[in-house]
Write a structure and sequence with these properties.
Number of domains of chain A: 2
Largest interface: A-B, 44 and 44 residues
Helix content of chain A: 40-55%
Low-confidence stretches of chain A: none
Strand order of the largest sheet of chain A: 2-6-4-5
Number of helices of chain A: 9
Oligomer: homodimer
CATH architecture of the largest domain in chain A: Sandwich
Distance between the termini of chain A: 28 Å
CATH superfamily of the largest domain in chain A: Jelly Rolls
CATH class of the largest domain in chain A: Mainly Beta
Order of helices and strands of chain A: HHEEEEEEEHHHEHHEEHH
Chain lengths: 246, 246
DNA sequence: CGTGTCCTTGAGTGAACTCAAAAACTGTGG
DNA sequence: CCACAGTTTTTGAGTTCACTCAAGGACACG
């Protein structure tokens, strides 16, 4: 499947909740967005702190994340992104980037000029509302991570993240049967969860010991979904996915 | 100064970045929003998890916060809110609440029906964009807190929060001379920063020992702004306040 | 087949936690 | 104006979860 403008149109429409919700006119306008599709290697920055981007990137294939670097080499990862996500949608209304976006795996992204998106949202308030909503769900995921960082044990935080990612991937049709590709190092996981890579390792061992999951060769397998979810008080409400399953 | 509909109009316009940025027509529409002003006591819930609110609340006086309760009585506070904020603006586009909003001090809020806000944003895309932007800045603050929870020491996290709150209050004209009313208990601070109340207490003592701040009787005083900011790598960029100072 | 990255494990340390109790406030009613 | 109850702050002592440092093993890739 070669990445084409069509591919990105499909992805964009899927992101907006499926063609069913859009009028012909709206779909037409989306199909005519002037996108630039580009393949990227792993661990490549897409936008950087202090940049003033003039476009947004729609992730078509691969994984990306948002992060910030601190003094003494510390890093905080704010979110992981999968195909269909627009990790830097906020740049549409906030000029200056306050964090970085980079690929984790090799990836394919579609760049869409701000101008085109601003025209689109001005012409179609319904699309604006859906995109706005999307950034709000983003905020909900940030809050869930905050709870993990502040009030959950290492085990709970890791379990919670794995549950979240599974449901997000499943909703985009990218995972099923309680398993998925997870192209993250233990260091990445640690920087997302506020843990050291060593402790992530021990935590994974513990979860494996309870026969809840295995993470091996970049593939995560969940053996007991319900038990895993219960172990970390996982409540999927904050992902606000109902729109897709409906 | 009695709370009146006029007061809430002023506050709303101020929130949107000042009258200068709005057309007469836009200001007119805002002035005709059907608001309900209500005084509230301290520690009163405004909206709760799982609610499906039909209005948003604009905070006119006092402090509020967003939070979530976990098993075993744990609590995570996600944000603090000051006059001018609309803590539950997200309910405009996400039906079900995934967290709670409550007052911290006694407060005055103006409730605005969703319907009216949706009409307003549909009629005036510029207002929609400003409100959207506001929720994006919200997200930026969440990220800053994540960094604090994940990668900062207790001292740094506390200092960072105090810097953030000062700039936010100052931008709304509610603080100057490096001091402000902070109606939070040490338990509240702990639940925001992922610390125990005991450790918050020790951390405050440490900061006081360095003559950086005092927090006494609900008033925070910052003695050495620059040193405090440096001690926690505080970079105000993420607050995206430039709009107001310009 | 070597080099770099990532994972794994051990040992010792430290930041923050819990439990507990005393001291200082706050507000209320007598 | 004082007494009192409830909350909040403060301090001490002991514990624990997660960290750092260090080194060996596994794996991936050119």
């Amino acid at each position: 499947m070669a990445p084409t403008p069509n591919h990105s149109t499909d992805m964009f429409i899927r992101k907006l909740g499926g063609a069913a919700r859009l009028s012909d006119e709206e779909r037409e306008a989306i199909a005519h967005l002037p996108v630039t599709v580009r393949p990227l290697g792993p661990h490549q920055d897409i936008v950087r702190e202090k940049d003033r981007p003039s476009q947004c990137c729609l992730l078509l294939e691969g994984w990306a994340c948002r992060y910030q670097l601190l003094s003494e080499g510390k890093r905080q990862i704010f979110s992981f992104h999968i195909p269909g996500d627009i990790p830097d949608l906020q740049s549409l209304h906030i000029r200056v980037m306050d964090h970085n976006v980079c690929t984790l795996s090799s990836a394919v992204v579609a760049f869409i000029p701000h101008e085109a998106l601003l025209d689109l949202t001005a012409a179609f308030p319904a699309i604006a509302a859906i995109l706005w909503r999307d950034t709000l769900v983003d905020g909900a995921v940030f809050r869930a991570w905050m709870t993990g960082l502040g009030r959950r044990t290492a085990c709970e935080a890791v379990a919670h993240l794995f549950c979240e990612l599974y449901l997000k991937l499943q909703a985009m049709g990218l995972a099923r049967d309680y398993a998925y590709r997870l192209p993250l190092t233990q260091l990445d996981l640690g920087d997302a969860l506020g843990l050291s890579n060593v402790h992530v390792n021990r935590t994974l061992r513990e979860l494996r010991g309870k026969d809840l999951i295995t993470l091996h060769g970049g593939t995560l397998e969940i053996y007991k979904w319900q038990e895993l979810a219960d172990s970390c008080d996982f409540d999927p409400a904050y992902l606000h996915l109902e729109r897709r399953t409906a």
